[in-house]
Design brief:
Layout: H1 4-11, E1 27-29, H2 54-63, E2 75-82, H3 86-100, E3 104-111, H4 113-122, E4 127-128, H5 140-147, H6 164-175, H7 179-195, E5 203-205, E6 215-216, E7 220-221, E8 227-228, E9 234-235
Helix pairs in contact: 1-2, 5-6, 6-7
Amino acid sequence: FSDVNFRRALAYAINYERLLPVWQGVATLAQGPFPATFRPWFAQSANVRYSLNPQKARTYFERAGFKTIPIAPPLQFEVMWQQGNRAQRDMADLIREDWAKVGIQLNIKETPLPPFREAVWTKKFDIGFVQAPLRYNDPDSLASLFYVSSEIRYRGFNPGYRNARVDEIVRLGRATINPSTRAQLYKEFQHIVTDEVAVLYLVNKLHAFAYRKEVEGIRWNPNYGPHFRAYEMNKNPNPK
């Protein structure tokens, strides 16, 4: 996985559209590290989009040194899915079918969360599914968790990706106040990590919540998941 051409080949060998039905209507195709609704930070023009393209996959496999496609004998990798998350397992099954066509044998392993985390922290795994909400409402929340090289450590969640410019962008993004300047920095960030396939971006999971009409003042708070600002909520006995 250290060869960017190999990672690009894998990205072009997935039929992403087939992944959506797994989520039964509660997911959209991912376009990079940030969802399209994450404004003003999401930059569609900056993201390199991947879709199933056998010819491009073949081209990048050849650049990575594989002259015959499908690769023979097949390369074998293990993908971890988090125990209890059947959608991850089902996506793994579909990706296994896609990659088998290019000579990649994907072995699927159900993994409880504690050993899953330990494998990520110690970098002793091939591929793993990760679902991560924004830790706080800022692009730094993901950039500093998965992409900065200082997180390549025990109990760090960077799986081994290094890019000096990304490190610099994260540092500058934290220190810069001007919103326009920050937007340009994170636009460049999105281009780099999608172009280099730091992560295989699959889907963005959607969330829906129901509440009684007399409850007012509900404000979404993305910190570490689906939380709300309870101190702003109140009950109106005469809702409209």
